[in-house]
Every structure is written in C-alpha cells, then in structure tokens.
C-alpha cells in the first residue's frame, strides 16, 4: 500500500520525512502520521516536542528534544531530568541559567567570590 508521511516518522528501518512517499507491507501498519496516496492534502508544519531525559557526561543526565539535541543547560540526576522533561512536555519554557557550573554568579552584585569556600581557587 502506497502512503505519504504527514509527519516525520519511522517505518521500514528508516526515518521518513514529511511528504515522502513509500510502501507499507500491510494496511494495519498505517500510522496516524501517514496518509494513503502519493500527495499530501495539507502540509502541516512540524512542532518538535517530546523532550526526554538522556545520559550525559560523567553519569549526569541532560534533557534532549525529539531531534536528539540537548535543550537548555539542565544537568542533574535521572529523576530530576525526567521531571524537567515532563515539565517541558507540558508546555514549560526552557529555563535560562541563573549561574554557570563554575559558580560564577551571572547577576546581582558582581561579587563572584564566596568568603567561606574560596571558589576562585583551583581544586587540588
């Protein structure tokens, strides 16, 4: 059966792009992202959602989008990454960092040091 992809999807061992025409083995394989025939009745702009928690470097977890790209600057444990992905999937905005991982404060008084921990000294 000849079908055309209405949305990006996976079938027959590969990714099918919007507007791509291909054959499916059985009518039961017709997915919601497919339409019978060679032409699309209406081209719909895709909106990528589907954020997921993914393992990053050093055992930390990050959040990636449907295209596999890291979104935002989140870096934490698996449970926190899954909660952040769920928040983004519910329509939440990608948070901007309040500070970077090096402890340098991005806002406020301009004082980047902490008198109790000496953060501007290198780790031994």
Q: Overview of this structure, please?
A:
This protein is mainly beta and 124 residues long. 10% of the residues lie in helices and 19% in strands. It has 1 helix and 7 strands, in the order βββββββα. It has one helix at 78-89, and strands spanning 2-5, 9-11, 14-16, 21-23, 34-36, 52-55, 61-64. A 3-stranded antiparallel sheet has the order 4-1-5, with no helix packed on it. Strands 2-3 form a two-stranded antiparallel sheet. A hairpin with a 2-residue loop joins strand 2 (9-11) and strand 3 (14-16). The longest helix has 12 residues, at 78-89. It is elongated, with a radius of gyration of 22 Å. 10% of the residues are buried.
Quick structural summary:
This protein has 124 residues and is mostly beta strands. The protein has one helix spanning 78-89; strands at residues 2-5, 9-11, 14-16, 21-23, 34-36, 52-55, 61-64.
Give the strand order of the largest sheet, numbering strands 1, 2, ... along the chain: 4-1-5
Residue stretches low in confidence (pLDDT < 50, at least 5 long) are: 99-110
Order of helices and strands: EEEEEEEH
Helical element count? 1
Average predicted confidence as pLDDT: 75
Number of strands: 7
SS-derived structural category: mainly beta
- Over the alpha carbons, how many angstroms does the gyration radius reach? 22 Å
What's the helical proportion of residues? under 10%
Q: In percent, how much strand structure appears in the residues? A: 15-25%
Largest sheet: 3 strands, antiparallel
């Amino acid at each position: 059966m000849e079908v055309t992809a209405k949305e990006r999807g996976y079938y027959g061992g590969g990714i099918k792009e919007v507007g791509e025409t291909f054959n499916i083995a059985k009518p039961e394989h017709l997915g919601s992202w497919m339409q019978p025939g060679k032409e699309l009745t209406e081209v719909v702009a895709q909106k990528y959602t589907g954020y997921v928690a993914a393992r990053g470097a050093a055992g930390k977890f990050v959040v990636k989008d449907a295209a596999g790209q890291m979104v935002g600057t989140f870096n934490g444990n698996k449970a926190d990454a899954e909660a952040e992905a769920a928040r983004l999937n519910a329509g939440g905005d990608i948070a901007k960092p309040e500070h970077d991982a090096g402890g340098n404060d991005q806002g406020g008084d301009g004082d980047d040091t902490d008198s109790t921990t000496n953060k501007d000294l290198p780790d031994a």
